[in-house]
């Protein structure tokens, strides 16, 4: 029996493979185009939101540390350094400043291991963190209010996909 020639027509495997490859390439190009347009906007947005921290007398890094300590009360210096992807000396310098400003407290919880230090926020630290969240939300709400209702709906629809983009990063940070 002679070998069959590959099927031709709209459903041939070769044509379908080419269509899938073209679609994947178009999606990759589209994703690259979107990434190139979205990245600078996200950077400017992040820079503007971070600027709110400076007006409260803390750096954006210190605000991030306050948020992490708030989420994980009693976290140790080592765990916080890993979570925030920061070297121990840099972290200790930031914690020293936060403690000096009365925003963070250190406590020894393990009498057998004097190296172990637990970190918690003071009431003043909580106040700074809450005020910062309120200011950042107000800043963003002011800008969102300037959008049309259609534009606002588009931004709202983008929240879930943008959140999904960050989920793998959060899993990596927790590992």
Structure commentary:
The protein is mainly alpha-helical and 175 residues long. It has a single domain (18-174), classed as Winged helix-like DNA-binding domain superfamily/Winged helix DNA-binding domain (Arc Repressor Mutant, subunit A), CATH 1.10.10.10. The chain has helices at residues 13-54, 60-71, 77-83, 88-100, 123-145, 149-174; strands at 75-76, 104-107, 118-121. Strands 1-3-2 form a 3-stranded antiparallel β-sheet. It is globular, with a radius of gyration of 25 Å. The termini are far apart.
Descriptive terms for the model:
single chain, Arc Repressor Mutant, subunit A, disordered N terminus
Question: Layout of SSEs?
Answer:
Layout: H1 13-54, H2 60-71, E1 75-76, H3 77-83, H4 88-100, E2 104-107, E3 118-121, H5 123-145, H6 149-174
Helix pairs in contact: 1-5, 2-5
Main β-sheet, spatial strand arrangement: 1-3-2
What is the rounded Rg? Answer: 25 Å
Q: N- to C-terminal separation?
A: 59 Å
Low-pLDDT runs of 5+ residues are 1-6
Mean pLDDT score: 84
Helix and strand sequence: HHEHHEEHH
Number of strands: 3
Major sheet characteristics: 3 strands, antiparallel
In short:
By secondary structure, the protein is mainly alpha-helical.
């Amino acid at each position: 029996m002679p070998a069959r020639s590959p099927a031709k027509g709209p459903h041939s495997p070769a044509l379908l493979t080419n269509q899938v490859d073209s679609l994947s390439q178009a999606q990759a190009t589209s994703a690259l185009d979107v990434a190139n347009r979205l990245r600078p906007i996200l950077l400017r947005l992040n820079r503007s939101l971070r600027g709110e921290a400076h007006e409260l007398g803390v750096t954006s890094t210190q605000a991030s540390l306050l948020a992490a300590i708030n989420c994980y009360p009693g976290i140790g210096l080592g765990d916080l350094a890993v979570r925030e992807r920061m070297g121990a000396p840099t972290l200790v310098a930031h914690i020293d400043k936060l403690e000096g400003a009365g925003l963070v407290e250190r406590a020894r919880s393990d009498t057998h291991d004097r190296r172990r230090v637990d970190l918690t926020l003071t009431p003043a630290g909580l106040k700074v963190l809450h005020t910062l969240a309120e200011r950042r939300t107000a800043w963003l709400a002011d800008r969102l209010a300037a959008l049309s209702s259609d534009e606002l709906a588009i931004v709202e629809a983008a929240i879930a996909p943008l959140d999904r983009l960050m989920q793998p990063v959060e899993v990596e940070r927790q590992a």
